[in-house]
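$ fold --in a.seq
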Amino acid sequence: MGYLHAIKIEAIGDATKTTDDGVFRWCYARGFLSAAATVDPDGIYKDGLLTWPEEMSASVDFRDGRASSSSQRYVLRADKAGALWAELMRFRHSEVAELIADLPSSGASSLTIDVSTAGLNGTYFLEREAIKIDGGTQATIAGGFRYTVARAQIGTSTRAHPAGALDDKYIYQTPHVLAGRRVQLVRVSLDASSAYGETVLWSGVLRNITSPDGGLSLELEVDSALQLVSDSTILQDRFQGRVAVATDQQQDLQIFHSGPNVIPAGGSLLAADQQALFRVGDHLVKGDYSAFIPPRGDAFYLQIDVVPRRVFAGKSIPADLTQLTDQAIREVFSTRSDAPSNAAVVADNTLPLSAHPGKLILQLLTSTPNSNSAGPNGAYDMGVDCLAGDVDESLVDVAGIISWGDSIGVEFNNLYVGLEEAPVNLGALIQRLLTPLLSALVQTSEGLLTVVRLEDLAPYGDTSSIVQSQILSVGIAHDRNLIDSVDKVSISFGHLPGLDPSKLTGRDAIKYRRLPPGQHTSMELEVPGIQEQDVVSMLCSALIGRYHDPIPIISMACQSTADFEIGAVVKLTHPFIFQGDATRGASSASALIISRREGFSDEEHVLSYDMMLVGLIHPRDGYIAPSGTVAASPSPTSSVFTINANDFTSTTLGDDNPFVLDVSGFDVGDVLELLDQYGTPRATSMTIQSIAGNQITLTGAATATPAAGDIVRPARYAQSVQAQKDDWIYVASASNLLGSDLPKTYRT
């Protein structure tokens, strides 16, 4: 079985095609498809791909939270892809109409468009969105014409389009916006039997187009989605100004506005309770506001009511408000639950910012400029213009980021975004939030943005492994990484206006004495969203514990069957891999993938990895063992009984809850013991034959019939099978041994 590779460029295609999104697939030989009419019924596979990258790479460094993903370069043969000249090399675009009424992103009014021109029919481009206008629905309205419209055509996304005097309301018949268009490398089997059953191998955004040979070929320079985040800036257009009048008697501030947003985002959609969070000089206040134009002129002013005079956080408000005259003022956003909202009902797609780490990252990534109203780009699009990371949700691993946030164990309850005067780099902000959590934003092999963490152990039930037959390297490179350790960690926290942040420092005294002179290494971090010292102390201890010993790194090339992502923990088995006792021959040793290089051509497909041998540092990690309570019904027998669903687990997955049913901690072949409700053993050496729902069937009759309220749990270490010994934590003896084995460490 072979494959055909192709690239897709957002907005380049044919909106009349109905089988798929109509985006053209530029490939090197459509004729290679054994059933082209079935695989490509719309004829959107186009010959013309001349060269495409033979390697894609990605890496992560958890020490500083930095990650990288390679950019790509594609070359298209223009003489075979004539349409591309018209689409990609057009410098002038003719305006065919103007939008005369706002086109929202959703709702009934988003299905019709009001424009200045009659006779429109077909595909058009409004800002970054492709729309299809049905000319047969034309109706005359005041000042123009109304049509039925189909939104988000040719792989584009729905956006709100205002029609104000200063807005981009021009409609074109050709794609006039190319920068930042999504580009995907896809693969389809040559003998595929269904239409458009493609696998996405990589996604990025279009950066530049060149033609080195006068038009014979076109070269596309494509950045990764990760680079898109690194280049993004937020808070450029937030509300800001200067205190023109500070009236102590009325206890309010009159603000002369100096930016493009005439009112704050907080409260902007509310008829009443218009509140926003402001930094005024060195003070952070929450105030009611209203807009007005004073009699003496036509300049725009905002009046902020600061009654009662209560600081939201940070330095107290002066008793004499006139001291605030001429102070700079700007809107700030917070994760505090009492921070202002832009909606009557607070949700994941409204202000205030979420304290949940995963939801917060998604809000920052996927929010789009939508006039401060919840946007169309997924469940976390707040639509706040100045906070718009504007990464298309199709480029984001939403479920993976939420799962990471659920498991991380902390929340950003006191984060303030925008305390600084200057705009904020989105990539740097996310990196600053993630690094203290031993986490980083990375890009998957399919081009999706996700968050990974420095882990010692794969998720419960994950059987990811690489065995000797999959390893192509003749020799496996080992790097002892001798001095990659940390003896001091300093974390600043509690960042508030007008006040110095708190600082907590932890030192690894043993590591300090062991390191050679001049090799002492410290980590300087800030946790901008956490003010609780006990939480910061926990993070500090975790970092010191993590980097007490340098973690060895190995490198190897593997077959394409060993396909794993950055951040995955896999089990390695190979006779040449060193173990902790200096012997060679690792069996199911845990390794964390920190670098991935995928090389593929028509002849071969090779995956090369750099891996941290976390299993050498923490070889005996495990989970707290499962338990179950025998249910009252159905009536148990000596070999069949049912346990309750959630006596010892919750329904939410997490590090300390790796499964959502008590029975999920048990497996066929496990050896159990039975205790009464007081912990007295009633039966031992019970082996599981099968599990159906919450019902457990044993291979033979237990020595005591389970009774309602009895407890079942794994047998003692010596009686347990190897799979149980690998997964669960057992209490070691006084000599710090489990039989003849080394003890384990609790995972969390």
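$ fold --in b.seq
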Amino acid sequence: MYNIVTSFNEDGLKTYAMKMLETAARHWKSGLKLTAYYHDFDISKHDVPKCDHIEYRNLNLISEMIAFRETYKEHDGTANKKIDYNFRLDAIKFCHKVYALTDKAFEMADESKQAGWLIWLDADTFTKKDFSGKNIESFLNNKAELGFLGRKHFAYSETSFMAFNLNNRAPLDLLGDLRGAYDSGEVLNYREWHDGFIFERLMIIYRAHGMIVQDFTGHLDIVDLTKGKQAFESFPLTEFMEHLKGNRKQIKKTVPLAAAKRYGLIADIIRQYQPKTIVETGTWIGQRAIEMALASFENRDSFHYIGFDLFEEGNEELSIKELNAKPIAKKFDVQKQLSSFRKKMREKNKTFTYELIKGDTNQTLTDSINADMAFIDGGHSTRTVQHEFSKLKHIPVLVFDDFITQDDQGNCVDPDFQEVNRIVEATKHRKYVLPSGDRVREGGITHLAVILTDDTIEELTTKVMQVPIQVTPRDCVPDQSIVGNIRKNLKLMTNWIEKGRGHGDTAILVSGGNSTDWDHVKELSRQKNTRIVCVKHSYPQLLKHGLQPWGCVILDPRPLSGKSTHGIVRHSLFSKIDPKTIFFIASMTNPSVTRLIKKNTDRLWGWHAFSETLRAEGDKQKPIVDNTMVLDESLNIPSETTFITGGTCAAMRAIGLMHTFGFRKFHLFGYDCTIPEPRENRKKKKEKDGRPKFMNVTLDDHKFWTTGELLAMAQDCEKLFQRDDVDMEFSVHGENTLVKAIWETSRMAKVKHYKEVLPC
């Protein structure tokens, strides 16, 4: 007998679980038993299938689960509606799975020391044909203690299917630890709070202690995942079952596709132009229709949607022809979704109407369509895109998906699928290509593009044109050079930093930006218990202005002889060295820098900057568990070493370094992330790899000039300032700089001092 367990709430039952139960009742044969846990509703009010191999249990009878939800109710992925929903921070939603699984496991273990296999199966899984215990036996290794769906280069396994051999102690202990993490609230000490993340960390520990595991899909690489292939689909069970993962479920809530951030801009376009009718080519499952309707309802009470799609007339041949990676959706299912949405809107005094037209748009789409806005996202072939444009070009606002640009490796989709580019480039109307970071599986970046065919309507708002602060930093020297630097510095330096306790001193951190108010730095430095800490570019400036740096943080792995990113010969930055300055030199720093400073002062302290280069070959790119990693033994770095994180440059690592020393109060000067506007003849200058040297970015309607390296620093600042788990107090200086703009919109900046809240 194989015991299988699942869980769902009332919405889940209506949306997908009923299909699981009905197909299990119909297709499951001997050797299988399903225990279905339900929560927060009365299942007797629903006509669920009843048979000998399905048992229903009320999860709300588990008092520990009720206590957990009440105690940690604010950890629901929204921080009690303070942030946009983030499933990684939703401890409440995913606790039901843990309590259902462990409740059944503990019961089985109490009943027998040879309890057999317990299998978790997500409730959004349905059975396609007859299925029995013998089918599971055919792929499940009885010598294994745990079976799971592995994913290479991914932070955690897929947990839609997990198998625990309760004839052995280790799986039961793992489940006990999993349950304990929730009962005690320890789950909130992890970086992510969903069951998959916690399960993965526990499995890593138990595997290290000898637990025998069976990875059913270990070959599934990130390439497969980005192509839309899920772990469950590479699993023997897929012959009998289908997993409706993520957006393949029946849609009840409108949640943007995680892999398609650009679609969020459509709502902004709708808010601006307030269309009462939208036509869309490529309706698919109807999710975008609902999202567009909701955006429209912010400004009006009625909305009409017209959707074109192949629906069930689609096939693999057409998908290849049109470069379509999405699964086929049935018109009936989409109608059901939109009708349900219409009913819900009616309850809110909103009128939603719709039309769905099935078939190839080359035959079904005519120029008789009347609408205020069109979203063109059907097929991607030249013929289809051109036809859809020709029939919809009379509509005032045209939004195209799939304007393609090269990615950072220079890859791009075949020119045959770049008709949107050609249409946008050829039009004489006002046009806009919106910023995006969404990648295409064939290579390249896909964007939304807008054409305004009505010359009388207003310009597209700058809000949707803002470039997201997102760059991928790269080491400026090869890994082997960094390794060589570390080995040499380990011999050159004798003093290495240690972690210190917290205190009330203030660190004045000075980076190399032009905005630094030196008089203000002097004023602050006169206060008690302050320390000025700088980077190499600001070090000469501090000395020039008569300021005594307590410390100077150095990270650069490049030799003294070359020029810095600021165009300054690095050697000149140390032409004058104050012997009172403590130089905090990262182990990856070029030894030529270390030797120069060592000639002039003995106040050198080494530290190790975290880098993948430091990790053992088999440990690289793996998730960090419990703040530990496996070091490359050949480097001879002590295992108890504290590694400094924080960002891509010395200025950001300086924050991490001072925090390690116990500093909690920081003044940031010169963290501009901004440069003066370049001369016209320099604005189009390229780096050696072809990337733009200078970039113009916008944040809240303010424009800033910057570079790739400074943009990476801005990204680091944005991440830091949004954290709510770091005990730091910042004062960010530098008016009219990108860092100041980031700070003013950050979570940290909005946290109030107690005197602003409490009577004093």
